[in-house]
Amino acid sequence: MTVLPDAALSALLAQDAPYGDLTTDSLGIGARPARMRFAARGAMVLAASEEAARLVELAGGGVAAVVASGTVLEAGTVFLEAEGTAGALHRSWKAAQTLVEYASGIATRARRIVEAAPGVTVACTRKNFPGAKEISVKAVLAGGAVMHRLGLSETLLVFAEHRAFLDGAPQEWIAALRRRAPEKKIVVEVGSVEEAVALAHAGADVLQLEKLPPEAARAVIEATRGLVPPPVVAPAGGVTEANAAAYAAAGCRLLVTSAPFFGAPADVQVTLVPR
What we know:
By secondary structure, this protein is of the alpha/beta class. It has 2 domains: 120 residues, Alpha-Beta Complex (Aldehyde Oxidoreductase, domain 3); 144 residues, Alpha-Beta Barrel (TIM Barrel), CATH 3.20.20.70. The strands form 4 sheets. It has a 4-stranded antiparallel β-sheet with strand order 3-5-1-13, with helices on one face. The chain has a 4-stranded parallel β-sheet with strand order 8-9-10-11. It has a 3-stranded parallel β-sheet with strand order 7-6-12. The two termini are 28 Å apart. The model has no long low-confidence stretch (mean pLDDT 97).
């Protein structure tokens, strides 16, 4: 199942070949029968393979086989096979390859964090490249993580930049938020152990620790475990596969990260030959 509609995928093809494929057309090879295969050059978690397959179809090719997003691939594994004219396959080749490479890079990095902290929920922020939310979310889910928040309309997350405009005590504005949105959890970003403990006592449901180390997370958990219910302590900012285990050992059961969005794409080998 694709997360991008045909109109969006067709727009990707149009961006790459707004006036046709000059090279293929000039060589006069567009009508020749061809086949194309996509394979992982290295181990990776696959994402957006369905969108890649649909790009081939929209360009006029046919898909013989495609492996589902979320599949863990070993180096050399073929995950997409297509047939059609050389013109159709050349037109869809690069857009499909690039989409899979970027999405699979996100999925692979997300999976590494998930595997580094077994039993802990890894939630990715909305800090994806603007305009790429749908594919980014699909890639995060393919990697075994979840989304932290999809946008401003969804979650009550109070930053210091919000609190700068508030005059009352934390208990007052937290109580006001609970009256206005009683079905929502109240998440507050904090920058120190002391601030976290104070806001927990004021009624915050989730304490989002901004760039605090694992030992600080442990201190917050120990200082607030007597509250009923105790707040969720969620480290955020700088959470990676290198420190996820340390946060888990500190007692955190939710890690918030943007790390999967930043890094090299996965490497996909494409073979396009006559049929």
